[in-house]
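pls read this stuff:
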Amino acid sequence: MLPTRPEVSVVVPVFQEEASIPTVIPQFVRTLATQRRSFELIVVNDGSRDRTGALLDELTAGEPRLRVIHLARNYGQTAALMAGFWAARAPIIVPLDGDGQNPPEEIGRLCDMLEEGHYDVVSGWRKNRQDPWLRTQVSRAANWLIGRVTGVKLHDYGCTLKAYRTNVIRDSRLYGEMHRFIPVYTSMHGARICEVIVQHNPRTAGESKYGYGRIFKVAVDLILVRMLQKYRTKPMHFFGKITQWSWLAAALCMIFGIGRAIYAQDAWKAFWGKAPLVGVIFFLLGCFSIMLGLVAELAMRAAFEHNAGRYWDEARRVNFGPGGSEWEPRSTTADGLVAPPLEEPVNH
C-alpha cells in the first residue's frame, strides 16, 4: 500500500487494449511522475478477454503507484469508471482513456485550475479532435443536443479527460451510458463547471470500441437525465402531467361525442361513437401512466440503488494492500443510503 495519500487519482478504464497497454500505461506513469503532484494510477480492466489483464499485472510489479482492478466481466465504461472512483484516495479524480489519445501532460493544468478554488469540475474540450470526420460531426450534434436539453452547455461531453473534486463525484450513482453525463449530475448538486481546450492525439494502436450504435442509447439516457434533473425529487409530477393531458384529452373527446349526439339527436352516438372510444383510451392511458411510473421508480431503485448503487463484481485487485482501498464507500448519500464496504479483494 502506498505510504501516503496521493494528491491526484487518475482512473483509466480499459477493455481489450492489449495492443496499447504495453506502451500507453508506462507512458502515463512516466508523465505523471514528472508532475509536481503525487499520484496513483488506477486502471480498471473491464472484463477484457485478451491479454489486457495479464499485461497489467506484469506492469504492476515494482510500481506501487499503479493499481489495477479486474472486473469479473464486461460491465461497460460507466461501471468501470465508478469502480475506479470508489477506489480512489486522492482529493482530485481525473479519468483518462486507455488508448493514449488523451495526453496525460494535460492533467497538471486541469488540476491547477481546480485548485484555484473557483470550480469543482474542469472539463476537457478536444477542439482539434483526431477522429474520423463523421464521428466528430455526430459528436458535435450530440453535444449541442445535450447542452440544449440539460442547460449545462459544454463543447465536448464525450471527452473522458476531466478533473473532479472527489466530493462532487464519488457518491454518483451512474449506470448505462451515463458516464458522459457526469457534468450534468455534478451540476445538479451545485458544482461549478468550466471547460478548457486540451490536446487530442490520433490512436496509434488497437481499435476504437465506440460505435454508432451508441447513439440511441445516449438519446434514451439523455431523456432519463433530463427527468432526473427536473423530477428527481418529485417523479410523480412528471407522470402526473401525462395523466393531466390524457384526462383532458379524454374530457374533450367525451364533450365532442356528446355535442355530436345532441346535434344529430341520436343519444346512441354519445356513448358508442368513435370520439367517446378515443376518450376512454386517453383516460386509461392516464391511469396507466401513474401506475407504470410508480412501478418503474420502484424497479429502478431496487435494481440500481441496492448495495448503494454498486452493480459490478470485482474478480480481484492488484497493488491495493491487505485492506483494499483506504476509503470504503460508507458515506451517507443524498438519497439517504449508506454505502457498504467492498468485498475483501484478492491482492498480489
Summary: The chain has two domains: 8-232+312-318, 235-299. DSSP finds eleven helices and eight strands in the chain. Residues 8-232+312-318 form a domain with the Spore Coat Polysaccharide Biosynthesis Protein SpsA; Chain A fold (CATH 3.90.550.10). The two ends are 11 Å apart (CA to CA).
